[in-house]
Design brief:
Elements: H1 3-8, E1 11-14, E2 22-25, H2 27-30, H3 33-47, E3 54-58, H4 61-73, E4 76-80, E5 90-97, E6 100-107, E7 116-124, H5 128-139, E8 143-152, H6 158-164, E9 169-174
Parallel strand pairs: 3-4, 3-7, 7-8, 8-9
Antiparallel strand pairs: 1-2, 5-6
Helix pairs in contact: 3-4
Length: 178
């Protein structure tokens, strides 16, 4: 399956979650067996040469892709979650969103000093959440090899913001607009 066929499996929903937004919904791609396989294979081809120690996925669709990618690479998987979702001791980071603040957390001690991390999410838009996740991982002493996304919305500048912060990025698909 080529990139155009993969892109065709992504559903665009206008005016969600608010007017003027073109929401890129990967659930239609995930539901297609060949599409999911091609997506994970494409992400694995990008990630494999990096020789990561672990895959870290950002809530929530980053869990789906991150776990599948970790399996394909023969690695473990660590979730970065919203507050109050992980049992036991956590470490976290607060960050600013366009209309407020949020927080991300992971289990304390799960990412050790020098752990070579591949950060995964389904989509990069403005980059706020991915930047916060990258900072949280750095604070744990991780070496962030790459932030990898199924979809980039380049007009929103998220990848550029990550790269300006010293985070290498890659995405399999790109869609114009917001």
């Amino acid at each position: 399956m080529d990139i155009d066929e993969l892109a065709a499996l992504v559903r665009t929903i206008p005016d969600f979650p608010k007017p003027g937004i073109l929401f890129r919904d990967i659930t239609t791609l995930l539901a297609d067996a060949q599409g999911l396989s091609a997506l994970v294979s494409g992400l694995a081809a990008i990630a494999r040469p990096l020789d990561a120690d672990i895959v870290v996925g950002i809530e929530a669709r980053g869990f789906v892709l991150g776990a599948a990618l970790a399996h394909a690479l023969g690695l473990g998987f660590v979730p970065i979650r919203k507050p109050g979702k992980l049992p036991g001791k956590t470490v976290g980071i607060d960050y600013v969103l366009e209309y407020g603040t949020d927080r991300l957390e992971l289990h304390e001690g799960q990412i050790g000093q020098g752990t070579r991390v591949l950060l995964v999410d389904d989509l990069i838009a403005t980059g706020g959440t991915a930047l916060a996740a990258a900072q949280l991982l750095r604070e744990q002493g991780a070496t962030l090899l790459l932030a990898l996304f199924a979809i980039d919305l380049p007009d929103l500048g998220g990848r550029a913001a990550l790269e300006a912060d010293g985070v290498a990025t890659a995405a399999l698909l790109e869609f114009p607009g917001n």
